[in-house]
């Protein structure tokens, strides 16, 4: 069972999202919150697998709440759910360690798929958000793109061949279980590899690792 804390300052939105999640018997919304501070308190109390946070909320916005949750309860994955898709929000959310970024205007099935993905240790971006991230990585003019590629290649140069292989599959969006099946390893071994890769790259989560993999040319 995937245990979820849901935070949005609009009760009607919370009810709608809860109804969508309720269609899947593998997901259980254990608590709701109307602002970011309440969301942090609920996560500390219930220790859910995933916290789903709106961005614009009173007292503490979803981005600040997500950063605090990642600091105080690192086993809880953070998914940002919002109507906003501006690059600044995406960059800040991913920089603070969010594992997913979904748009409220997306397909309800995408919400369920995204929660399941991050609960399994993968990262999940709404297709529209993923397009923005990839476009940003690809659009650097001349030296900018080349400098990022060179820096990424330097970052991954210290990884072992197996760690590089795992990083490439993380960059392709595979979960630990999928990587284990692809490489004929047990899932616990893959989890250890992923943790080592994140530590050696100096990144906070799988999304940031995937960006390094993309810039280093490990993912096409």
TrEMBL record:
<dbReference type="InterPro" id="IPR016032">
    <property type="entry name" value="Sig_transdc_resp-reg_C-effctor"/>
</dbReference>
<keyword id="KW-0805">Transcription regulation</keyword>
<dbReference type="InterPro" id="IPR011006">
    <property type="entry name" value="CheY-like_superfamily"/>
</dbReference>
<dbReference type="InterPro" id="IPR000792">
    <property type="entry name" value="Tscrpt_reg_LuxR_C"/>
</dbReference>
<dbReference type="Pfam" id="PF00072">
    <property type="entry name" value="Response_reg"/>
</dbReference>
<dbReference type="GO" id="GO:0003677">
    <property type="term" value="F:DNA binding"/>
</dbReference>
<feature type="domain" description="Response regulatory">
    <location>
        <begin position="3"/>
        <end position="119"/>
    </location>
</feature>
<dbReference type="Pfam" id="PF00196">
    <property type="entry name" value="GerE"/>
</dbReference>
<keyword id="KW-0238">DNA-binding</keyword>
<dbReference type="InterPro" id="IPR039420">
    <property type="entry name" value="WalR-like"/>
</dbReference>
<dbReference type="InterPro" id="IPR058245">
    <property type="entry name" value="NreC/VraR/RcsB-like_REC"/>
</dbReference>
<keyword id="KW-0597">Phosphoprotein</keyword>
<feature type="modified residue" description="4-aspartylphosphate">
    <location>
        <position position="54"/>
    </location>
</feature>
<dbReference type="GO" id="GO:0000160">
    <property type="term" value="P:phosphorelay signal transduction system"/>
</dbReference>
<protein>
    <submittedName>
        <fullName>DNA-binding NarL/FixJ family response regulator</fullName>
    </submittedName>
</protein>
<feature type="domain" description="HTH luxR-type">
    <location>
        <begin position="152"/>
        <end position="217"/>
    </location>
</feature>
<dbReference type="GO" id="GO:0006355">
    <property type="term" value="P:regulation of DNA-templated transcription"/>
</dbReference>
<keyword id="KW-0804">Transcription</keyword>
<dbReference type="InterPro" id="IPR001789">
    <property type="entry name" value="Sig_transdc_resp-reg_receiver"/>
</dbReference>
């Amino acid at each position: 069972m995937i245990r979820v804390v849901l935070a949005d300052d609009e009760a009607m939105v919370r009810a709608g999202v809860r109804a969508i999640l309720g269609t899947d018997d593998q997901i259980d919304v254990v608590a709701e919150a109307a602002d970011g501070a309440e969301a942090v308190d609920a996560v500390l109390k219930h220790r859910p697998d995933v916290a789903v946070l709106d961005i614009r909320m009173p007292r503490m916005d979803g981005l600040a709440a997500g950063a605090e949750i990642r600091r105080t309860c690192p086993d809880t994955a953070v998914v940002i759910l919002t109507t906003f898709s501006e690059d600044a929000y995406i960059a800040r959310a991913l920089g603070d360690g969010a594992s997913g970024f979904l748009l409220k205007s997306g397909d309800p099935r995408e919400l369920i798929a995204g929660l399941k993905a991050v609960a399994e240790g993968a990262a999940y971006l709404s297709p529209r958000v993923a397009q923005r991230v990839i476009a940003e990585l690809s659009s650097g003019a001349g030296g900018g793109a080349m400098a990022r590629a060179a820096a990424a290649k330097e970052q991954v140069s210290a990884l072992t061949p197996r760690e590089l292989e795992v990083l490439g599959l993380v960059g392709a969006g595979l979960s630990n279980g999928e990587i284990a099946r692809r490489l004929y390893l047990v899932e616990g071994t893959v989890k250890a590899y992923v943790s080592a890769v994140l530590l050696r790259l100096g990144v906070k989560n799988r999304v940031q690792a995937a960006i390094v993999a993309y810039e280093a040319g490990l993912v096409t």
